[in-house]
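Entry, Tuesday afternoon. Goal for today is a structural model of the target with zinc ion bound, before we commit to ordering more compound. Inputs were pasted exactly as handed over by J.K., no edits. I checked the ligand SMILES twice against the vendor sheet because last time a stereocentre got dropped in transcription.
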Amino acid sequence: MAQQAESIASNGIYRSCPLCDNENADIKPSIYSRDQWIIKMCARCRLVYLENPPAYEDLEETYAWEKTSHQVTEEKKKKESALRQGVRVIERYKDRLIRRDKLIDLVKLYFPAGPVIDIGCGGGEVMSRLDQKYTPFGVEVSKHLSGKAQQIVKSRGGRVFCGNALLGLDTFEKDFFSAAIMSAYLEHESAPREVLQKILRILRSGAHLIIKVPNYGCLNRIVMGQKWCGFRYPDHVNYWTPETLIKIIRDTGFEIVRFNIWDHFPTSDNMWLVACKPD
Ligand SMILES: [Zn+2]
């Protein structure tokens, strides 16, 4: 039994395309596959995805984001040239000096006061930056991080569900939330369609959802190949492009409110989209 659990933890669980359900059994693994992690491009909808993502239970601790993310960052730093490291320091200072906080800008534009849910809230970093007029709620699969987030939201009347989003979203009332955030989440979710459908249930009519994900279609991925910062094994299980992101948002019943060229500019590693639940 222990051996079986270990094998699942190391090899993941097979899935068909999480966007269109195509099996893609005859499709060759992508050159971006690594170790035991098999990446494929769907023959039908072109979504690039990890075919054997870790089980949710393994994300609670074994592959918890705060652990694997730290490991990957340290590995990448070791491989970086001195020049690249210098550029990274400059970028960080530039961000602090001139870049505005895009997430908070979008929140101000689209979110009315009221309860807001942050799906994949991590340690509560985004929720701690929300204005007091919002009551923050969260869902987080990592046990360690959800505990930290709970400390942040409890004094504001919110709560954090510790577990996977498919279970967590069912614990909230229908039409309860006035807005939702998925920042750096949808690339981690092995059942993205099902989660979006569940979010639609708990949002009020006309409520907005802000999404931020890495853009697999960006220039940096094409130039850097395997070294692109958006590759995370096995954390990132879906690699979205503007086309596949639009498709999943529409297929699940949302309307796209904002997705202009500046929201998915080809030189940026990330893209932003604002959707809403139709009236
Ligand atoms: Zn597909």
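Residues 99-224+240-276 form a domain with the Rossmann fold fold (CATH 3.40.50.150).
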